[in-house]
């Protein structure tokens, strides 16, 4: 919506704890930015890697995957075999992916679903739990609930920025 201010300037989101508002705003802004970038994106170039950079397809897969993984860690859960398989497949089209336009639509829908799952988890996250310890990865590196949620948002924003640049280059 070109006439609206960025998401963070539209006010608080209902049911999101005050300390998690920036996380929710960043995720919703990322979703909106992706939608604008892909509105005129040439779908046939989804897996192109100009100058060797990651493809738009990779970024779309990674956006959904990393949100899912960070939310899992924030819930103090290990990654499932399905999540590990998804991670290993990031950057490659699914064997039954279909036509490029359908792939773009499916990947964008998956990212949107991941954002909605993240928002639901933010709604359920009590502020009192934000500093709770959470191990990350096989090495159980130390983090906290808020560390994981903020990282999910900033990592999402980082990849959306890369997606925007790659999509613009490919679109000419």
List keywords for this structure.
DinB/YfiT-like; mainly alpha; Four Helix Bundle (Hemerythrin (Met), subunit A); globular; DinB-like; 172 residues; two-stranded antiparallel ribbon
Spatial shape: globular
Spell out the CATH superfamily: dinb family like domain
Global Rg? 16 Å
Largest sheet: 2 strands, antiparallel
CATH fold-level name: Four Helix Bundle (Hemerythrin (Met), subunit A)
SSE run: HHHHEEH
Give the count of helical stretches: 5
Helix-and-strand structural type:
mainly alpha
- CATH architecture tag: Up-down Bundle
Q: Give the terminus-to-terminus CA distance.
A: 23 Å
Low-confidence stretches: none
Compute the number of strand runs: 2
Average pLDDT, all residues: 95
Number of domains: 1
Percent of residues in β-strands: under 5%
**Percent of residues in helices:** 55-70%
InterPro entries: DinB-like (IPR024775), DinB/YfiT-like (IPR034660)
Pfam families: DinB_2
Organism: Hymenobacter caeli
Domain DinB-like: 27-163
Description:
This protein is mostly helical and 172 residues long. The chain has a single domain (15-171), classed as Up-down Bundle (Four Helix Bundle (Hemerythrin (Met), subunit A)), CATH 1.20.120. It contains five helices and two strands, in the order H-H-H-H-E-E-H. The protein has helices at residues 21-38, 56-74, 81-89, 100-124, 145-171; strands spanning 133-136, 141-144. The protein has a two-stranded antiparallel sheet with strand order 1-2. A hairpin with a 4-residue loop joins strand 1 and strand 2. Helix 2 (56-74) packs parallel to helix 4 (100-124) and helix 2 runs antiparallel to helix 5. The longest helix is centred in the C-terminal third of the chain and has 27 residues, at 145-171. It is globular, with a radius of gyration of 16 Å. The model has no long low-confidence stretch (mean pLDDT 95). This is Damage-inducible protein DinB. Residues 27-163 form the DinB-like domain.
């Amino acid at each position: 919506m070109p006439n609206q201010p960025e998401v963070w300037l539209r006010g608080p989101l209902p049911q999101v704890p005050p300390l998690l508002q920036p996380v929710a705003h960043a995720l919703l802004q990322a979703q909106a930015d992706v939608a604008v970038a892909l509105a005129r994106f040439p779908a046939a170039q989804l897996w192109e890697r100009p100058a060797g950079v990651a493809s738009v397809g990779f970024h779309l897969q990674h956006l959904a995957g990393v949100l899912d993984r960070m939310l899992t860690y924030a819930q103090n859960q290990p990654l499932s075999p399905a999540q590990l398989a998804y991670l290993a497949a990031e950057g490659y089209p699914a064997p039954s992916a279909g036509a490029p336009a359908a792939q773009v639509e499916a990947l964008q829908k998956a990212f949107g679903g991941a954002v909605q799952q993240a928002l639901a988890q933010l709604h359920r996250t009590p502020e009192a739990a934000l500093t709770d310890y959470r191990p990350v990865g096989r090495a159980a590196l130390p983090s906290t609930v808020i560390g994981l949620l903020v990282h999910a948002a900033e990592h999402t924003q980082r990849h959306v920025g890369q997606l925007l640049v790659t999509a613009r280059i490919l679109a000419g």
